[in-house]
Amino acid sequence: KELYRGAAVYLQLGNIEAGPLTNIESGLSGTPVVAFPSGGNLDFVMAGVNGVLIDTTCEDMVDGVVEAIHATMQLDRKTVRESTVAEWGNLNRMLGEVEAALTDCVAGSWW
After folding, report:
1. 108: exposed, middle or buried (C-beta count within 10 Å: 0-12, 13-18, 19+)?
2. How far apart are CA 108 and CA 102, in angstroms?
3. What is d(CA 57, CA 60) in angstroms, rounded to the nearest whole number?
4. Nearest-CA neighbor of 79 among 20, 31, 37, 8?
5. What would the pLDDT profile of 78-103 be if each residue is shown by its tens digit?
6. Are strands 33-35 and 10-12 parallel, antiparallel or unpaired?
7. What is the C-alpha radius of gyration for the chain, rounded to an integer number of angstroms?
8. Phi, psi for residue 24 in degrees, rounded to 5
9. How many C-beta atoms surround the C-beta of residue 93 within 10 A?
């Protein structure tokens, strides 16, 4: 928790994360997220509220990440935390969504 609070931003640069809990942990600590628009990042990051999604190609990835970090550092950390609590702070709801996703996966309806 202290590591997230001490960070200016959290970089979630994985392209295959289904639902990175680290985004939620970061947001609950008030630290905004910079992430690619894929997987669970699309569900979590609300652009300009709790982070920034970057859509870059390999050629401009570094510039895109740097620009996103600068934009994200302008976000209010209290707003980041409050938006995360409002959307993801209900553990029972989150566990229910995980259970439903796993049920769909086992049933083969995920693909």
Report:
1. exposed
2. 10
3. 6
4. 31
5. 999 898 888 877 666 767 777 777 78
6. parallel
7. 15
8. -65, -45
9. 11
Please give the helix or strand (H or E) that residue 48 lies within, else none.
Answer: none
Question: In residues, how long is the chain?
Answer: 111
pTM (predicted TM-score):
0.70
- Over residues 69-78, the pLDDT tens digits come to 888 888 999 9
What residue has token string 């928790």? 1
Name the residue among 30, 57, 56, 27 with its Cα closest to residue 43: 27
Give, in order, the Cα–Cα distances in Å from 45 to each of 4, 27, 83, 84: 16, 9, 10, 9
